[in-house]
Design goal:
Layout (H helix, E strand, L loop, with lengths): L2 E2 L2 E2 L3 E5 L3 H12 L3 E5 L17 E4 L1 H9 L3 H8 L1 E3 L1 E5 L5 E5 L8 E5 H12 L5 E4 L2 E7 L4 E6 L5 E5 L2 E4 L8 H5 L5 E16 L14 E5 L4 E6 L5 E8 H6 L3 H11 L3 H5 L1 H10 L3 E9 L2 E2 L3 E3 L2 H4 L8 H18 L4 H31 L5 H16 L7 H7 L4 H40 L2
Bound molecules: flavin-adenine dinucleotide (FAD).
The site of flavin-adenine dinucleotide (FAD) has 35 residues, from helix 1, strand 5, strand 11, helix 10 and helix 11.
Length: 455
């Protein structure tokens, strides 16, 4: 246990990466009384109002909320900032729409939150703790994790800064250059997959009165089979629109004429919302970004270093769980700090041994959800299944939790969410088979009586 002569031993922790997960983890560690130094490659996000690269807004759900609650920020995010989204608002090609509620039973919602806002809030909160120091414009360039040693380069002066720590938390995101270091370990499993699809962000501005141009409390989806567009509401009544499609499609839309024809064919109702000129300007101002999924393990290097968040398990963004899963890492880690009284060897080992199964599971679920969002939601079979799920969930809320609800509105481990879905599928298939067996002789008898028996 982390006790020296019966007193609590303060650990010297370095967190690499001051993104969403790193900033939150710094808060958890600070709350436990440890000394925390947070190193971030970029400048302080609170001084750069414009979004930087990644999605501008994100869907926050229960796993993320649970972690924010622990550090006292959930209420603020939900009540003062987040915009509730209570279902999917599906746009057909002819411009008509229909709604698929997320949770018709208890009316739970997911919340659209600004990435920069949330990141800034987490950093701001850390100012309340004297035991947290923040270093921006510091890029990690080398490390010896086993020795607890890190070397940073200041991006402005190019000065090298070397630090030692009892514990290194790597939260430097999916494209971390330093993962190479941890990959040198024997028996380290690593698998990364770029999907064929990329994403590009567009924007629907507020209307002339400064209000929303579409009903705000939904996640809007334009599912088109092989590709799709989605929109999440922002605080200023604009919408962040994300177009997901194969890179080959992006490449083929290489002039204004082709772009407009494509939008007229597949997303006609979005053109007046975005505005023709804005659509052209925004589309050609950026280029499509790749989407990566990473599965790796173990997450620790002995009792010295641990990777969390996207650095450990980046997932494709189709069920809005990347950040939520990263925040859940922080909750679980905090529980392990309590359970093992800050004994790093036990904490890091247990986290590494147990967490990977759930992060692998959410990665698979996120891949599946892309098909659901861009294609299945338009199919009667999907809508029928959703209706059946909703009815049984309403009748037996503790027993039958549909997949989306268990992932988004519960903290049931992701692996268990998959197992639940598997037994639910079995039950439904058997019931259908039973119904088929019972009804077919009845049907045959009816046909016989009507057409044969009476003749
Ligand atoms: P990051 O946010 O990537 O932060 C890593 C930080 O480390 C960055 O600040 C970076 O500058 C810093 N860094 C990198 N290298 C170094 C270095 N060498 N030295 C020092 N610092 C370094 N998740 C959801 O839960 N809901 C959603 O709706 C959702 N939508 C998404 C939409 C899109 C299009 C994408 C791409 C992702 C989405 N995600 C969503 C996933 C979410 O963005 C990530 O899971 C989340 O950002 C992970 O946080 P992180 O802190 O682990 O990594």
């Amino acid at each position: 246990a982390n006790l020296e002569n019966g007193t609590f031993k303060k650990l010297d922790v370095v967190v690499v990466g001051g993104g969403l997960v790193g900033s939150l983890e710094a808060l958890f560690l600070a709350k436990r009384g440890h000394r925390v130094r947070l190193y971030e490659y970029r400048e302080d996000i609170r001084n750069t109002p414009q979004a930087r690269g990644r999605s501008i807004n994100l869907a926050l759900s229960i796993r993320g909320r649970t972690a924010l609650r622990e550090v006292g920020l959930e209420d603020h995010m939900i009540n003062n900032h987040g915009i509730p989204m209570k279902g999917r608002n599906i746009h057909r090609i002819d411009g008509s729409t229909y709604i698929i509620p997320y949770d018709s039973r208890t009316k739970q919602c997911i919340y659209s939150v600004g990435r920069n806002y949330l990141n800034g809030l987490l950093l701001q909160e850390s100012e309340k703790y004297e035991n947290v120091e923040r270093f921006f414009n510091h890029k990690l360039i080398a490390s010896n994790l086993r020795e607890g040693f890190l070397s940073f380069q200041k991006t402005d002066t190019k000065e090298i800064v070397e630090v030692n720590a009892d514990l290194i938390i790597g939260a430097d995101g999916a494209f971390s250059a330093v993962r190479k270091e941890i990959m040198k370990q024997p028996l380290f499993d690593y698998n990364q997959k770029y999907i064929e699809h990329g994403y590009l962000e567009l924007c629907i501005p507020p209307d002339s009165n400064g209000g929303f141009q579409m009903p705000p409390n939904y996640l809007h989806i334009w599912p088109r089979g092989e590709f799709m567009m989605i929109a999440l509401p922002n605080q200023d009544c604009s919408w962040t629109v994300t177009l997901f499609m194969p890179f080959t499609h992006f490449k083929s839309l290489d002039n204004e004429d082709k772009l407009l024809k494509f939008f007229e064919k597949y997303f006609p109702d979005s053109i007046p919302l975005i505005g023709k000129q804005k659509l052209i300007a925004d589309y050609f101002a950026g280029s499509a970004s790749p989407l990566i999924a990473i599965k790796c393990r173990p997450y620790n290097v002995e009792d010295k270093a641990l990777i969390i968040g996207d650095r450990a398990h980046a997932v494709v963004p189709f069920n809005g769980q990347g950040m939520n899963a990263g925040f859940e890492d922080c909750t679980i880690l905090n529980q392990l700090f309590q359970k093992h009284h800050d004994d790093l060897a036990k904490i890091l080992k247990e986290f590494s041994d147990t967490r990977w199964e759930d992060t692998f599971a959410i990665s698979d679920l996120a891949m599946y959800n892309y098909i659901e969002m861009r294609d299945l939601v338009t199919r009667p079979s999907y809508l029928l299944r959703k209706a059946i799920d909703d009815v049984i969930f309403w009748l037996m809320p503790k027993v039958w939790i549909p997949l989306y609800n268990s992932v988004t509105f519960s903290t049931i481990p992701y692996t268990q969410c998959i197992k639940n879905r598997q037994w639910q599928d079995k039950v439904l298939n058997r019931s259908l088979l039973f119904l088929g067996t019972v009804t077919s002789p009845v049907g045959a008898f009816y046909v016989y009586k009507k057409f044969v028996g009476l003749s």
